[in-house]
Amino acid sequence: MTSIDLDATKFQAVRLFQRKRMIGFAIPAVIVLYLAYIFFAFDLPGLAGRANLDNAVTLASDSWSHKVHVTRNNRSGEITYAVEGERKGTYPDGMRPDWVSGDDVLTIDLGGDHIVRYLPDNRTEIDIPGFQLIEVQAEGRSLNTNLPADLPDWISASNRRIGISTPEGRITMTGARTEVFNYFPGWELFWFTLDSPYHGQGLGTILFGERLDPTRSNISGAISDWWNNAMWRHKDVAWAIGETILMAFLGTMGAAIIALPLAFLAAKRFSPVMVLRAATRRLFDFVRGVDALIWTVVLARAFGPGPLTGALAILLTDTGTFGKIFSEALENVDQKQIEGVSSTGAKPLQRYRFGVIPQVVPVLLAQILYFLESNTRSATIIGAITGGGIGLMLTQAIQTQKDWEEVAYYIVLIIAMVMFMDWFSGWLRGKLIGRKD
Asked: What are the distances in angstroms from CA 353 to CA 187, 342, 359?
């Protein structure tokens, strides 16, 4: 090798080293620039400023606890006791919480020496340790109070509304009503509402005790009252979960039935006409290129809301996806098996039935069952738009901004439903294909 060749080789080596070094510097710089873009494009400083930890704590606590309202109507003087402030959770006449006492002067013990007293003439006293005795008088639409000008953060006050938040509970007062909220852990009235004879009874009493309702046996009565619970609507929830699963099933299976024959038209081995093959593939691209949520909005406008609209949206999207998957599976079938069936004098349809389908069935079933599981989750969101299934109930609970324990209940049910569908699809796949994951 001459000296000129050696110099050329060294030059190329130096150039290669410099190029790699430049790339090594460029990649981190690009990453830093991209992260900086995200920082400002998504307004992360503003997001941090808008974050409210107190609201997050309240939301988390509301998901596993409940509150009991003690409300006085300042116009009529009527006092009501209700779980979550709902009519369905109102205490029957003659019943009230054991932490409320008195008649003319109603004393509400929130715990921790936090006492609220409902006095005659729409007067209220609030005794909070470490703070002065708060006195409020409701007159018409206005409130007169002895609160000082300099208030702590846990009190907000004006002449029309006063709000007090303590670790033991909350008090809100307006000219129209005075309301106390006392918080307790657990999902109250989950089993039986207050008007049920089985409320507050133990399992042993219901199973082995004397009859609590003269007209019904304890077991049948307890099941009926739980199933028809007006607060938690167990019957409606079960129906909604069934709608969600049915929506996913109809959409997935309908898409598979439609996509299988079309996949033969999109596979080059079985469709020699290029125009027909290209048109079928573009059809698959079109229907799967539009997300199921978009199809849901379009179909809801055309056919109206309902579970069937959600099933059609899943069907359209999955038809394109299944068509692509099935056509690729058909492209990879073993030609020798088809030739073996053909040697028996089988007709074209028979060749497909006995030479092609047995080869692709494991792939097809595995994909269909996987999408059935996935679409069970998707049907929850689609149901929130079309007005069907558990997704609608979840959306309604979120929109109230107060029933967060119901939101937690529905989320737990959705997770359980998805876990069940995962197990069921794995079991069914093992039964049909002959193996499990």
From this structure: 56, 11, 10
Q: Which amino acid is at 2?
A: T
Q: Tell me the two tokens of residue 29.
A: 């710089």
Distance between CA 361 and CA 337 in Å, rounded? 14
Give the DSSP H/E element, type plus range, for residue 38: helix 3-41
Euclidean distance between CA atoms 408 and 394, whole angstroms: 9
Q: Which of 204, 318, 208, 313 is nearest to 252 (CA)?
A: 318
- Over residues 212-250, the pLDDT tens digits come to 888 888 899 899 989 998 888 899 999 999 999 999 999
Q: Distance from CA of residue 361 to its chain's centroid?
A: 34
Token duo for residue 305: 């809301």
Query: Which CA distances in Å does 400 have to 203, 246, 265, 394, 396?
Result: 33, 27, 50, 10, 7
Give the Cα separation of 78 and 323 in Å (integer). Answer: 66
pLDDT at position 62 over 80: no
Sequence-separated (6 or more) residues with CB below 8 Å from residue 231: 83, 84, 86, 88, 89, 189, 190, 193
Q: Tokens representing 17?
A: 């080293």
89, 134 Cβ separation under 8 angstroms: no
Task: Identify which of 224, 187, 194 has the alpha carbon closest to the alpha carbon of residue 206.
Answer: 224
150 pLDDT more than 90: no
- d(Cα 155, Cα 134) in Å, to the nearest integer? 11
Report yes or no: 284 and 324 within 8 Å, Cβ to Cβ. yes
Place of tokens 């974050």: 51
CA–chain centroid gap for 310, Å, is: 16
**Cα 113 to Cα 96: distance, rounded to the nearest angstrom:** 20
Report pTM.
0.78
| Contact yes or no for 197/209 (Cβ under 8 A) | no
